[in-house]
Specification:
By secondary structure, the protein is an alpha/beta fold. The strands form 2 sheets. It has a 6-stranded mixed beta sheet with strand order 2-3-1-4-7-8, sandwiched between helices. A two-stranded antiparallel sheet has the order 5-6. Helix 7 crosses helix 9 and helix 8 crosses helix 9. The longest helix is centred in the last third of the chain and has 14 residues. It starts with a strand and ends with a helix. Helices cover 46% and strands 16% of the residues. The mean pLDDT is 85.
Length: 213
């Protein structure tokens, strides 16, 4: 067991980064080394240069990236990274979508300190607590728990490209805007949207959007 854990904290608010570092300077008696980044690109570069990072806490709203695109781009750059979304939103769809995209955990900014601690412990000690350091948090602490929902269960089964298109549709993008954003042809985008409607068993694009409002 390493004598420390290294976490990359990605948030554009310096005060937030300072607070997290101060509150969680150690976990289960193990020191935590906090690396910092204020943008997605800084985070990707820092992860590359540091070489040994146990986990990443990634804010969803950064100057150079909004929403779950940041999670997708970070994991494309570093597929083996353990990336936890670090966000103030408790929206069920966002959390389920983050998990489906490959997030290792969801750390809520507005949660109680003990709850955030449990999530961090479960994230950093996936094989259990160091010997004689006390009980580790259960793996169920990695994500908030929601009642089962057929709609959200179907979303969780979608592939990465379908999830990307779904996010853009729910953001109000037209097919042409989605085509421009993803570099897919307009015909391919239309096929993706049609398959989304079929997979989620909805009648129309507007019906789909209304379900997630």
């Amino acid at each position: 067991m390493s004598d420390k854990k290294t976490v990359l904290l990605v948030d554009d608010h310096e005060l937030v980064r300072f607070g997290v570092k101060t509150m969680y300077a150690e976990l289960l008696g193990v020191p935590v080394e906090w690396l910092e980044a204020g943008t997605l690109q800084e985070a990707i570069d820092s992860y590359t240069s540091h070489g040994a990072v146990d986990a990443v806490l990634l804010d969803l709203n950064l100057a150079d990236c909004k929403g779950l695109q940041g999670l997708r781009q970070f994991l494309q750059a570093h597929p083996k990274a353990r990336v936890a979304v670090f966000s103030g939103t408790q929206d069920e769809f966002v959390i389920r979508q983050a998990r489906a995209l490959g997030a290792a955990a969801y750390v809520g900014k507005g949660t109680m300190m003990t709850q955030m601690r449990d999530t961090l412990v479960a994230l950093l000690f996936p094989n259990g607590a160091p010997e004689s350091r006390g009980p580790a948090a259960p793996t169920s602490a990695l994500f908030p728990r929601f009642p089962s929902s057929a709609m959200y269960d179907r979303v969780a089964e979608l592939g990465p490209r379908h999830l990307e298109i779904l996010e853009l549709v729910l953001s109000g993008c037209t097919n042409q805007e989605i085509s421009n954003s993803t570099n897919l042809s307009l015909g391919t985008v239309k096929n993706y949207v049609s398959s989304l409607l079929l997979a989620l068993d909805v009648r129309s694009r507007s019906h789909l959007i209304s379900l997630f409002r």
